[in-house]
Design brief:
The protein is built from 1 helix and 17 strands. It is mostly beta strands. It folds into 2 domains: 112 residues, Immunoglobulins (Immunoglobulin-like), CATH 2.60.40.10; 133 residues, Immunoglobulins (Immunoglobulin-like, Sandwich). Strands 10, 12, 13, 14, 16 and 17 form a 6-stranded mixed β-sheet that branches. Strands 3, 4, 5, 7 and 8 form a 5-stranded antiparallel β-sheet that branches. A hairpin with a 7-residue loop joins strand 4 and strand 5.
Length: 286
Amino acid sequence: MGINKKQTLNASKRYLMMLALIYLSCSELEDQELEDPMVNPSFSFLQDVNKLYFSVNAESSYKGEELDSVLVFWHGINRDESPDKLNLNDGGVQGDIIMNDDIFTIKILNDKDYLNNDLTDVTGLVFMDYSAVFGSEVFTLRDSVLIGNIIPRIESVVADTVIQRPSDATVSLHLIKAEVFDADGLETIKWAGFTSFHVEGDSLMNNGNPIYLHDDGSEVILYEPNITSGDSIKGDGLFSFRIPVYGTGFEDPNFQTKAGTFKWRFLAQDKSNDYSNMVEHEIVIQ
């Protein structure tokens, strides 16, 4: 059976359309590559080490020009502020993990000595602009990131450095305080407390569980008949507890306080289950 001219014409049209689609598809890909020499910007506020982390993927060339440098202009919480100009690198240093993988990075201390726009107890949007320089061409990628939960912070600890045990069968109470701050509000703090590590015994007291501090204004009876935390003012961010120190006259092991050097390690946790940095206090019980 022969092929008529109409069938041949239709086949030719289909072939030309296919070529056009392939050409357009390739052109679109080329245009997209030209339009996006920088992708995947990333920012993190590493609160546990108080550092800012920036990274972005950058192509090695753009519009026929080789990549010269990659920068980030860091505005902090206000895009109208004069930015910090930071050079990103792909050399496996300053927070960059893998050398020459086209991911350009910097990790920098969040401090006034290094940044004009350091972050201090802020939530909300922060702003940055990434720039890649290709010869005379500069490609800029504007970005903003929403900072969510800010971890709590232990501002100070008030506690004895030396405690002398009573020489008889009595108990002395010693007030411990920790000032805790949270930029998201004191109401977001879940708990504050400390663990007690006995240096000579190489062991944790209280089965390793935290000894909790309270910001309750001593309104709550913690132990019968009338033992309260010893906290002065409810809701002021000062978390308190009076620890009992048993005298040497007690024979019952349940009512004996060990002597030695202790490291008290204070922590706070918020309702997002994020922890503060640890604050350590050393005390000697004699």
